[in-house]
Amino acid sequence: MKTLVRAGAIGLSLACAAAAPAALAQSAPVAQDAASRPALFNLSAYGEVQAAPDMAAINLGVNTEAPTAAAALQANAAQMTKVIAALRKA
Asked: Given 3-state DSSP classes, what are the helix, strand and coil percentages for the chain, each rounded to the nearest 5?
């Protein structure tokens, strides 16, 4: 087993050593080319939208206290009816 692991490690080392010069040769021209060109980025945009609003979201709430839940529910319903009526008049 030790011999197999050593052979695998040696093979991996040789593969990396053989691939290193090719990898270095590819990256050098890219670095020189990028250094010789100036960095340039232009962006221009304009937009305009006109539309009438077609929806509104409103959250309303009332809070009442009563001795029982049923009594509180009735009081809340009565107050909310008044709030909605006032908004419709406005």
From this structure: 60, 0, 40
Own/partner pairs for 77-84, CB < 8 Å, 24+ apart?
A: 84/60
Could you report the per-residue pLDDT of 74-87, keeping only the tens digit for each?
999 999 999 999 98
Q: Running DSSP on this structure, what letter comes out for residue 66?
A: -
80 closest CA partner among 61, 52, 55, 65 = 61
Q: What is the pLDDT of residues 16-42, one digit of tens each?
A: 555 555 555 555 555 556 667 776 777
The end-to-end CA distance of the chain, in Å, is: 89
Residue pointed to by tokens 């093979």? 11
Alpha-carbon distance values, 30 to 33, 34, 38, 69 (Å): 5, 6, 14, 76
